[in-house]
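[User] At your convenience, examine this fold.
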Amino acid sequence: MPTNSYYGLRSVSEEERAYLETLIREDFERCHPGETLEDLKRRASFSREDKGLLRDWMAIAARRAAADQLKRRG
């Protein structure tokens, strides 16, 4: 089943973006040894493939943030 990488994404503040990045940083760096999330963000400014990869990781972060929010309300 195809997934929509834009799911759950909207324009976010710098503060929220920083929070979302904390939710994925460790997993990204574990999946991409020798690279950092900062490396990906830098490359995403000129690489279509890296822009898509960053978008996908940020979608994961948005889903994690939504799940955390539901837990707190629950």
The mean pLDDT is 89. The chain has three helices and no strands. Helices lie at 14-31, 37-44, 48-73. The CA atoms of residues 68 and 74 lie 10 Å apart.
